[in-house]
């Protein structure tokens, strides 16, 4: 503060020069308001906001891969030797968000590692595909022990949150697999559903993100529709849809309903728990290349290949709205979040699930999935050239982004979970930020 004089008064003659008199009485009244004004101007007088902590940087090579779940980060080192059929993989498991090394696993498989899941008690489930024929396989490993606890030629679909049962499937083909419920610690088969019994199988769409369905819906060869417990394999409800089975008969499960479509002729909806019929209407409800999503109070349908988004009324099956021009989308806490990621400048938009109208647009940002609190989403933007990253939290209610931090020299590959953000850097290392 330049050119400001403060009157300290005068020292009376004959008194010590160390004594400081009181401020002159006429000006004392202004000190209170002046102090208040300075506090307001300085933002409340508190300390300035602190920048986000520096990330934990883990050196990796370009051939190393990473897998992220809710509380673990797995680093899959490049297989040794490269290009052979039998490959030796080293997997390091880190605790999140502290990045403490927990265990190291050594896996010998005939191919590449596709999936990793924590089974509990230090056991790690590893899913792989055979490099020669593409057949799936799953092994459960102990730390620092290349001998599997068990191995089976199955592909992992999901594991229950309490780690008590896993859902897997195996040959003879991708269209007609054998579905199995298994004990993840021992590999014992708890129940099976053979392809000779069923024509089609589907699960509620929510399980694609949660990782495990509580119910499985099957259209049997004899024309019956049934619901099974994914934990026990027990059939809990059954019904026989009207009309004969056809080659184009298909089933889906979303929004509390199981939909049975008979080509372009008819669609019937059933309750997901009881299979009681809810409604029936002529024509298709689900397009051939559609994917249902639960965005209650409606059922949203994403069309593959950038075909846009639409929504139907779960009470009647009537088409409510359609929004074109979006190539990706997701439903977070009932909010429809769509994106235009194929454009030079990515953009997000929030749609009203009842009408499909655009509530707000968020240019330049990419969704990172459900955020730290209900009604929020993680978002980030990566500027190239420049390799500059910004990340934050999107409020799905008002469309505003709260910036959390920035970073330089980021190549991409960013992933969020509830605790961290992980991104690849230009030197192939990964940076891990606490959120």
Secondary structure topology:
Blueprint: H1 25-28, H2 31-41, E1 56-58, E2 65-68, E3 72-76, E4 87-95, E5 100-109, E6 111-120, E7 123-130, E8 136-142, E9 145-152, E10 155-159, E11 166-170, E12 178-182, E13 189-193, E14 198-202, H3 207-210, E15 215-220, E16 225-229, E17 235-239, E18 249-254, E19 257-262, E20 266-271, E21 277-282, E22 290-295, E23 298-303, E24 309-312, E25 319-323, E26 328-332, E27 335-339, E28 347-351, E29 358-363, E30 366-370, E31 376-383, E32 388-395, E33 401-407, E34 410-416, E35 420-425, E36 430-434
Antiparallel strand pairs: 1-36, 2-3, 3-4, 4-5, 6-7, 7-8, 8-9, 10-11, 11-12, 12-13, 14-15, 15-16, 16-17, 18-19, 19-20, 20-21, 22-23, 23-24, 24-25, 26-27, 27-28, 28-29, 30-31, 31-32, 32-33, 34-35, 35-36
What tags apply to this protein structure?
disordered N terminus; 4-stranded antiparallel β-sheet; Thrombin, subunit H; 435 residues; single chain; mainly beta
How would you characterize this protein structure?
The protein has three helices and 36 strands. The chain is mainly beta. The protein has a domain at 198-286: Thrombin, subunit H. The strands form nine sheets. The chain has a four-stranded antiparallel sheet with strand order 1-36-35-34, with no helix packed on it. A four-stranded antiparallel sheet has the order 2-3-4-5, with no helix packed on it.
CATH architecture descriptor of the domain at 198-286: Beta Barrel
Shape: globular
Could you say what the CATH topology of the domain at 198-286 is called? Thrombin, subunit H
* Broad structural category: mainly beta
CATH class of the domain at 198-286: Mainly Beta
Largest sheet: 4 strands, antiparallel
Count of individual helical segments: 3
- Percent in helix: under 10%
Percentage of residues in strands: over 45%
Q: Return residue spans where pLDDT drops below 50 for at least 5 consecutive residues.
A: 1-46
Mean pLDDT: 84
Q: What is the topology, as strand order, of the major beta sheet?
A: 1-36-35-34
State the end-to-end CA separation: 39 Å
* Record field, number of beta strands: 36
The radius of gyration is 30 Å
């Amino acid at each position: 503060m330049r050119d400001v004089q403060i009157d300290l008064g005068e020292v009376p003659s004959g008194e010590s020069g160390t004594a400081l008199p009181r401020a002159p009485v006429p000006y004392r009244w202004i000190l209170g308001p002046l102090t208040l004004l300075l506090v307001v101007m300085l933002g409340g007088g508190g300390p300035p906001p602190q920048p986000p902590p520096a990330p934990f940087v883990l050196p990796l090579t370009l051939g190393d891969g990473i897998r992220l779940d809710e509380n673990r980060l797995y680093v899959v080192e490049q297989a040794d030797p490269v290009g052979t059929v039998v490959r030796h993989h080293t997997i390091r498991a880190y605790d999140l968000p502290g990045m403490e090394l927990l265990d190291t696993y050594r896996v010998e498989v005939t191919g590449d590692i596709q999936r990793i899941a924590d089974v509990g008690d230090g056991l790690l489930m590893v899913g792989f595909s055979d490099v020669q024929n593409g057949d799936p396989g799953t092994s459960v490993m102990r730390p620092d022990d290349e001998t599997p606890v068990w191995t089976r030629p199955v592909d992992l679909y999901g594991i229950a949150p309490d780690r008590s049962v896993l859902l897997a499937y195996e040959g003879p083909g991708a269209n007609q697999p054998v579905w199995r419920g298994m004990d993840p610690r021992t590999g014992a088969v708890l129940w099976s559903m053979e392809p000779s019994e069923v024509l089609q199988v589907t699960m509620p769409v929510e399980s694609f993100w949660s990782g495990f369905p509580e119910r499985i819906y099957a259209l049997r060869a004899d024309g019956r529709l049934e619901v099974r417990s994914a934990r026990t394999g027990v059939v809990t409800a059954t019904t026989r849809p009207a009309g004969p089975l056809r080659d184009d008969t298909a089933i889906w499960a979303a929004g509390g309903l199981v939909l049975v479509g008979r080509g372009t002729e008819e669609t019937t909806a059933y309750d997901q728990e009881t299979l009681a019929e809810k409604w029936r209407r002529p024509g298709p409800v689900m397009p051939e290349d559609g994917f249902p999503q639960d965005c209650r109070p409606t059922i949203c349908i994403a069309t593959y290949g950038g075909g846009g988004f639409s929504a139907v009324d779960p009470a009647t099956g009537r088409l409510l709205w359609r929004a074109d021009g979006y190539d990706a989308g997701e439903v977070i806490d009932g909010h429809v979040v769509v994106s235009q990621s194929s454009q030079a400048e990515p953009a997000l938009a929030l749609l009203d699930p009842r009408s499909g109208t655009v509530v707000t647009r968020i240019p330049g940002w990419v969704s990172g999935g459900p955020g730290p609190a209900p009604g929020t989403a993680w978002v980030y933007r990566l500027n190239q050239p420049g390799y500059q990253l910004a990340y934050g939290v999107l409020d799905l209610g008002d469309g505003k982004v709260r910036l959390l931090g920035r970073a330089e020299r980021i190549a991409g590959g960013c992933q969020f979970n509830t605790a961290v953000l992980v991104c690849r850097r230009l030197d192939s290392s990964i940076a891990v930020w606490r959120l």
